[in-house]
Specification:
By secondary structure, the chain is mainly α. 68% of the residues lie in helices and 0% in strands. It contains six helices and no strands. It is flat. The chain starts with 6 loop residues before the first helix and ends with a helix.
Length: 85
């Protein structure tokens, strides 16, 4: 939602909401905060470890969460930027 990508999953009816969230600047703020945290090696390592843990769960899960089943999609790989959203 905050990344302005809801329309990718549910279609054009959420386009205005995506535009609002993009204009609100959450992606910009997330990128800026990520770059700042990358300056601290310990914080950056923690972000990478968190993302790796989420990706491990995605790869090894035994069921698909209901919201993904309803939408007919699979979870995307996680990265450091998604931690910031």
């Amino acid at each position: 939602l905050t990344a302005g990508r809801l329309s990718e999953w549910v279609g054009p009816r959420t386009h205005a909401l995506d535009q609002f969230n993009i204009r609100f600047g959450m992606r910009r703020a997330a990128r800026r905060n990520l770059e700042a945290l990358k300056q601290d090696p310990q914080a950056h390592a923690m972000l990478k470890a968190f993302a790796a843990g989420v990706n491990h769960y995605i790869r090894t899960r035994t069921h698909t969460p209901p919201e993904y089943k309803i939408l007919g999609v699979e979870p995307e790989p996680f990265d450091e930027l998604k931690v910031m959203y």
